[in-house]
Amino acid sequence: MVDVRNVRGGSGLDPIRAELDELLDSVQVATAQATEAFFASYDEDPDPARLASWLIPRCWREIDYVYLLNEEIRRYGMQFERRHITLLAKQSFQEAEHYDMVGKAIESLGGEVPTTVPAEAEPWSRFLWECLDRHPLSAVAAWNLSETSASGSFEPTFRGAERHGLDEVTRIYKQIEKDEKFHVGLGLQMMATYVHTDEDRDEILRAMRGMRDIAWRTFSPESVAAGRDS
Q: Which candidate, 4, 55, 211, 228, has a CA 20 to 30 Å from the CA of 22?
């Protein structure tokens, strides 16, 4: 397996590497546990509408990334190497594909694809955009931790979907898992390349700490209940 954290780009992250790795590890574990809990509850009540509700904030995250990445390029792109502009645009395209793919899965379960931010995803989205306003690397750090958090959901999702014969959900998330490795690696490479000062490092850690406290919750059974009751 490719180690997406072993990226070239510079040594600017070295002073905070230990905390950065701890944040990424902790949110991945928390999300895996939350996803396991959701599918354990789904085993007891395998209502397609519940699964559709669980997918809705994930679907929104994909299109919100499209908006965010394009705005990152618009605001800050001329500070980056051309290759990183290209790679950010590639990620944006893949996120748009994911929005379409997850949207089709939601529709197949009888749900409606979100066209505005769902209530349970609003804290996540608001924080992400606040980070974009603060610093060129702040939003990169926030979405990097969020993407790492999401990666903790893949294996529990595959197991849960297999138990219920949800082959299309498995197929979609197998493709998303493959793309997310590129996204996580790109975010780390960009931070390693463009971090230069203690202020840069402080902004990265602030963004990651804040997103850690938000991201994994969207995978919990409680988030589904909150979304359906709102």
A: 55
